[in-house]
Amino acid sequence: MIDEFLTHGLSDVEEAVRKAAAIEIMPRFRQLADHEVDEKSGPHDLVTVADRKAEEHLTASLTRLLPGSAVVGEEAVHADPTVYGALRADAPVWIVDPVDGTRQFVSGDPAFCTLVALAHRGEILASWTFAPALEEMATAVRGQGAFAGGERILSGSPEPGAELRVAMAHPLYTSEEDKRTLGRLEVPGVAARPCGSAGLEYLKVARGEMDALAFTWPSAWDHAAGLLLVAEAGGTQSTVDGVPFRVDRDNALPFAVGRDEATTVRIRDLLRGQCEERA
Asked: Which residues are known binding-site members for Mg(2+)?
C-alpha cells in the first residue's frame, strides 16, 4: 500500500498542502483578530485559528488520500498527548505542523511554513515544506532526492576553514540547562544565531545556505519533514549519543543537523563538550 502510494499519490499530497494553506492560512495572514490568537504553555507559545483550521483540513484530506493512515498533528497532540503514540504503531502516519513559525505568522512575518511528512514504522518516507507567503514548496522522497521549486537541491559542504553558520534552538523556548549546552557553540569558527521557523531552517541547510542546526526539543512535527529534506540533499544528523534522531523513540538531546558528516560531528561534539577534550 505504501509503495503504491509513493509511486502514484505524491502530487495529490502537494495539492492538499497547497489547498489547506490557500483556504485556512493565507486569508488570515496579517488579518488575525485578537480573539483568534491564544497562548498554550506561555506567552511565546502561540496558536491561532489558522493553525487549528489548517490541521483539521489536512487531517481530513490526508487520511482520505491514504485510507488507514493516522495523523500526528501539533494541535491534536496538544489537546490529547496520547495521539503521539501513533508514531510507534504499525499504521502509516502523517506528521503535520500546520503553521511552523506561528510567532512569525502572528507578527506578519512571511517566514513561516506548513510541514507534512509521511512516516511508517519510524522511517520518514516523504516530506513537504510549503512556505505559502514566500510561494515556495520543497519536497523529498526517501531515496529519490530533495527538490525546491521543482529543482534538485544539494547541501554540499562548507568552504574549508570557513566559519560555520549555525541556527540553534531559540532562547524563548529553551531551559537554563539547554542554554548552557547551546552556549558551547560560542567558540571561534562558529557563528550561531537563534532559529526561526524550524522547517525553513532545515531548507536552508538542504540548500547549503546554512551549515548546521542544533535543536533541544523532540517534537516530530518540527523535525520530520526537514530531516528527510536534508538527508536527501546529502546532509546528515546525529543526537548527542551518536545515533540518528528518530520520530518513533525517545532521543538523547540536543541533536545536530549538518550539510555534511564532518559538520554534523563538529556541532554534535561541541554540544556534548568533547571537541576541546579531543583537541
From this structure: 74, 97, 100, 222
pLDDT of residue 278: 38
Which residues are part of a known binding site?
74, 97, 100, 222
Specify the pLDDT at position 275. Answer: 52
Please list the residues that pair with 47 across neighbouring strands.
38
Number of other residues whose CB lies within 10 A of the CB of residue 170: 16
Task: Kindly state whether residues 182 and 148 are assigned to the same domain.
Answer: no
Q: Domain span at residue 63?
A: 2-152
Query: Which pLDDT value is given to residue 277?
Result: 40
**What is the pLDDT, as a whole number, of residue 1?**
78
- Asked whether the whole model's pTM tops 0.90, one would answer yes
Let me know: does 64 contact 19? Beta carbons within 8 Å: no
- For cell 540536543, the residue is 254
Angle at 226 between CA 221 and CA 231, to 5 degrees: 135
> Half-sphere exposure (CA, 13 Å, Cβ side) for 227?
26
In a shared domain, residues 145 and 184: no
Residues of the chain with pLDDT under 50: 276-279
Query: What confidence score (pLDDT) does residue 276 get?
Result: 45
* Number of domains, the chain: 2
Tell me whether residue 158 is in a domain: no
The CATH number that applies at residue 31 is: 3.30.540.10
Task: State the chain's maximal CA–CA distance in angstroms.
Answer: 54
Domain contains 52: yes
Q: Which three cell numbers stand for residue 253?
A: 538531546
Asked if the structure places residue 183 within a domain, the reply is yes
